[in-house]
Amino acid sequence: MTDNLVERYVAAWNETDADARAKLVAELWTEEATYTDPLADVAGHAGIAAVIEGAQGMFPGFVFTPGEVYDAHHRIARFTWHLGPAGEEAVAVGFDVVELAEDGRIARVLGFLDKLPTA
Asked: What span, in angstroms and rounded, lies between the C-alpha atoms of 76 and 99?
């Protein structure tokens, strides 16, 4: 299990340059990878990059940071993440479960939203 999986994952979600983001997605996810959460169900690099771009559009200027939970075994990991203005309280908190392929890249993400912004 890659020690810096969460840091690399968060970096991809924070990358605002489309070309740099596409490169990070290709490095981190397999070509056939899927990403499913309450708001999205996509497959492939283009779909995953589009979900990331969409999240950035919904929360401009906000940043993803690793949460407190990280656990892994075999080729499965689970971790929490936070989203909010840099240095401030998170407006969203999520819990993701990832399955890794043989090559160490992510093959599947199942995401859950534990805290959502209030209107």
From this structure: 5
**pLDDT tens column, 82-119:** 999 999 999 999 999 999 999 999 999 999 999 988 75
The tokens for 28 are 């981190």
The H helix count followed by the E strand count for the chain is 3, 6
Reference 6, options 71, 56, 58; nearest CA is 71
Give the span between the Cα atoms of 108 and 116, in whole angstroms.
Answer: 23
What does pTM read for this prediction? 0.93
Lookup: tokens for 4:
């810096």
Going along the chain from its start, the domains and CATH numbers come out as: 5-115 (3.10.450.50)
Residues present in the chain in total: 119
